[in-house]
Amino acid sequence: MISPENITGLILAGGRAQRMGGIDKGLISFHQKPLIESAINRLKNQVGPILINANRNITKYAGYGYPVVMDETPDFSGPLAGFSVGLKACKTSYLLTSPCDSPLLPLDLAARLAAEMERGPFDLVYASSLESGKTWAQPVFCLMRANLQDSLTAFLTKGDLKIDRWFKELKSSTVIFDDAQAFANVNTPEELKILEAAL
Asked: CDD domains in the record, alphabetically?
């Protein structure tokens, strides 16, 4: 059984947030608290150590008491850049990733992905959501083995940043969650208002 203590949680807060006008999304107020706090609160009981991937406002993020890891590639290279530094800093056998702007992330995310991982063997298990009869991949919500660093480094060296293409090189599986809203994220000011109003 994969215990929470053997999983490091990585909160991805290193994006450019162009559709939000370049504002650091992790620090945007959601019900009067920064979004990063919602991510921490929903993840902290599911994992052991927590890391925050951020590329600006480092002091503010560090103030939450968790190590902050910055991308090693320039220009806000996307979630795989965050995965890479998270894997390098990970000291447990597994790494669970989640974005900072999904304040309703499932409270059983780690447990369900870990159960599927044990059913494998798999290199990586990611979440999918069911909405209107369709299944949608949610690849930034994933549990991966911490020994994937070499694979990811080789992939990034090719200049590819597409998360789905890296997944195709691995033995992966997915877990379908019925609550699509659990993966709702904030990409625009309008989406922020809608999500706040829904709670």
From this structure: MobA (cd02503)
